[in-house]
Amino acid sequence: MTGALAALTAALPGGRWSTEPSVLAAHATDRSGLPAQGAPAVVVFAEEVDDVRLVLRLAHAHRTPVVVRGAGTGLAGAATATGGEIVLSTARLNRILELSAPDQLAVVQPGVITAELDSAAAEHGLRYAPDPASVAISTIGGNIATNAGGLRCAKYGVTRDSVLGLDVVLADGSLLRTGRRTVKGVAGYDLTGLFVGSEGTLGVVVAATLRLRPVPRSTATLSAHFATVADAAAASSALTAAGLQPAVAELLDGANLEAIDAAQGTALRERGAAWLLVQTDGTGAEAEAALAEDVLTPFARSVRRASDVAEAERLLEVRRLALPSLERRGRVLIEDIAVPRSLLAEAVDEIAAIGRRHDVRVATMAHAGDGNLHPIFGYDGPEVPDAVTRAADEVFRLALRLGGTLTGEHGVGLLKRQWLGDELGEESLALHRRLRTLFDPGGVLNPGKLWSD
């Protein structure tokens, strides 16, 4: 690292890099809870695209690993550094370069906060549809790196569905432009889609052309409480079976409700052992909400429609508060699986049984509209207990057994790399390796992530 560090510090202006121990420690890991595997050698704060190109060119020449980092809100350990690496922060590349209302698109740098883009789009009657629960703190670059989902993805898709094109700096410092500004386009391979979800292993995104959508003319929001989590999951599956496609269908179990009550002074748990938030939108929002209410009522203890926009926003905020409320109770291991929507209730029941078998605390929240579950294991102490690791292993194997996936939106990172081959199979995993080597022959981009190098 000595050669690369000397070259970087000589070439970059002061203030764009740091070797201070406190800065290194603050940028060594992400929100996954995984401890850093050693201190990085330097943190670079890129302020121009040329800063990124310089870092990768020097890293490539000196064979020095680079970990790219946005806001550090990732939950799979993909932004976790090891000893001697360069951490490349894109947080200061935070400008909205263009917002075109006629074309319903925006061109943004990776450090733009997701909610800030949504707010800027709203001034033109538009919105950025992907809506991760971390919308107020996560960056567009991080969303692209993990192909983040969120609350509205059942209807509007995940991040990949809103990315039209990318500017990417490759491992040798060269700049590649992919995609287009049009909604349709099939010329060539889908390189844009390949970079989305690649977790910093193929290149560094320095600009993204994103699709925007009109703000719905109206929304309707339902809040339903249930006697059991299985009832709530079955109700969500019944919405799908009825042909309804709400924009939001979010499930929280009793453990989540108890944590929110403790943190916020609410009384959600008194109303039932599970809660389902359903929001419809568009010109037919009210009619669709009425149909949804009819579907939910036989399963629920109570179903209430929000009286106005303010109440609907408060209900959405309750959902966003679930993870922070759990984190106030102790350390958590946040998992992320997806199963076919018709099997949501079976998955919820089995996750609870896994928690009991291993005698570990587990709270389950779900983007129920698309079968994406987040079993969250609570534990005490600095290290993840063996019982929690064994429980998580069972959860992953459950997802695969039900025809699902190890990760719906958080990515693989360090947390799930040992199971990736089980989902992909050997031929697919070998092709992944060859593609990665093609883009990064020196192996400098985020080594050790997705699989063990």
Overview of this structure, please?
With 453 residues, the chain is of the alpha+beta class. It contains 16 helices and 19 strands. The chain has helices at residues 2-11, 21-26, 49-62, 114-122, 140-146, 153-156, 191-195, 229-241, 254-264, 285-296, 309-320, 322-327, 344-357, 386-401, 420-424, 426-439; strands at 17-18, 42-45, 66-69, 86-89, 96-100, 105-108, 126-127, 163-169, 175-179, 204-211, 213-214, 219-226, 248-253, 274-281, 302-305, 331-334, 337-338, 361-367, 372-379. The strands form four sheets. Strands 12, 13, 14, 15, 16, 17, 18 and 19 form an eight-stranded antiparallel sheet that branches. A five-stranded antiparallel sheet has the order 5-6-10-8-9. The two termini are 19 Å apart.
Essential attributes:
single chain, eight-stranded antiparallel beta sheet, 453 residues, 16 helices, globular
- How can the largest sheet be summarized? 8 strands, antiparallel
| Gyration radius, rounded | 22 Å
Number of helices: 16
Q: How far is the first residue's CA from the last residue's CA? A: 19 Å
Give a short overview.
With 453 residues, the chain is an alpha+beta fold.
Helix and strand layout, with pairings?
Blueprint: H1 2-11, E1 17-18, H2 21-26, E2 42-45, H3 49-62, E3 66-69, E4 86-89, E5 96-100, E6 105-108, H4 114-122, E7 126-127, H5 140-146, H6 153-156, E8 163-169, E9 175-179, H7 191-195, E10 204-211, E11 213-214, E12 219-226, H8 229-241, E13 248-253, H9 254-264, E14 274-281, H10 285-296, E15 302-305, H11 309-320, H12 322-327, E16 331-334, E17 337-338, H13 344-357, E18 361-367, E19 372-379, H14 386-401, H15 420-424, H16 426-439
Parallel strand pairs: 2-4, 3-4
Antiparallel strand pairs: 1-2, 5-6, 6-10, 7-11, 8-9, 8-10, 12-14, 12-15, 13-14, 13-18, 16-19, 17-19, 18-19
